[in-house]
Amino acid sequence: MPQQDQRKMDLARRLLRHYQAGTTDSAPDVMAMPVDAYLDPDRYRAEVDQVFKRHPLALALSIEFPEPGSWRAMTVLDVPVLMVRGKDMRVRAFINTCRHRGAPVCENGHGLARSRKFSCPYHAWVYDDRGRLTGMFGASTFGDVDRADLGLTELSCDEVSGLIWVTLTPGLRPDIRQWLHGFDKEVDTLDLGNWYLYDQRAFEGPGWKVTWDGYLEGYHQEAVHPETVGKNTIANLMAHDTYGPHQRFVFGRKNLGQLADIPEDEWVPDDHIRLIHSGFPNLSLSGVIGGFCLASMVFPGKDLEHTVTIQNVLVHKKPETEAEIEAAEVFSRMGLIAVRDEDYDLGFKIQAGLASKGNQAFLFGRNEPTLQHFHKWIAKLCEEAKAEAA
Predict the structure, then answer these.
(1) Phi/psi-derived region of residue 109, left when phi > 0, alpha when psi is between -120 and 50, beta in every other case
(2) Domains and CATH numbers, the chain
(3) How far apart are CA 140 and CA 137, in angstroms?
(4) pTM
(5) Taking Cα atoms as reference points, which of 271, 274, 234, 237 lies closest to residue 254?
(6) What is residue 114's predicted lDDT score, i.e. its pLDDT?
(7) Cα separation of 73 and 96, whole Å?
């Protein structure tokens, strides 16, 4: 049996044991989190600076850069980022500001620059797919400058496990493998580089922590998602594993109990479990069912009460028949409804009530180990950064 299938068999066994015993993977104790952790603007800014801007973030999928010249420009936490696949097939990331007077060298969006050139709209300075300054309008009259010193400011960028990981602070060069703690090997089993990007949309959500809390547990599924995710997934049942700050957790589908009556050599784990891969602090790879997957990137927005989510709908192969297209549409609609119309709608209500002082602290139960792990890592990284600065 292939290693990844054996891994899924082991997960199915774990979930079935929990299902039969009425248990779930658990934390040692209940954890209290002061509500101020969701409200304090100084704390929020420190977390953005120390968590989001100092460590690799999943900003895009490899399949968004199918050939040399493929590019994507986006603004993340007020940082304008340009990612482009070069002629050497390597994806690089740059600050999207011309080195002359700071104008963006391309507008936010994505596309294919067949010439692999990017021209500043202000004074027509031209950069290639490696960020090098290759052209200056009126160069003979501009003055003596070293073009080698005037390339686009590069950001640390790694293409790993079908994802583009970028560190938003120039000059920082984290070791991506060390940061992933083996999580990349788990994501590799999804083979993201060979999926088809069926749809991509962006929408606003509530504050970063309120939003991300919803991605990390299944305790709420029957109450919040009775006709979408919860229709097929058992609430309050989870197998949980960690990889440094990152997590993989697995839910049981409503038919999980059937495995007790099927010989193990006839099991098809994918029919009975649902894997979630959570890349700290902003990536969710969810709903890997029947050849479909939601790949979501969540970013703090204009303030601590808002986020921006980029939701990618992936299909194992490009839908071509009417039935395939309809199945992709059904999954796409369900993903949008479950996240934007159900999770985020409730999240905005939670966010609006935070300042009421109805709660001094939120409780994370023993049955919510994913939430406890996430919040402990936020605190850990902020404390480490504070110690380094002291």
Answers:
(1) left
(2) 3-54+191-389 (3.90.380.10), 57-173 (2.102.10.10)
(3) 9
(4) 0.95
(5) 234
(6) 81
(7) 8
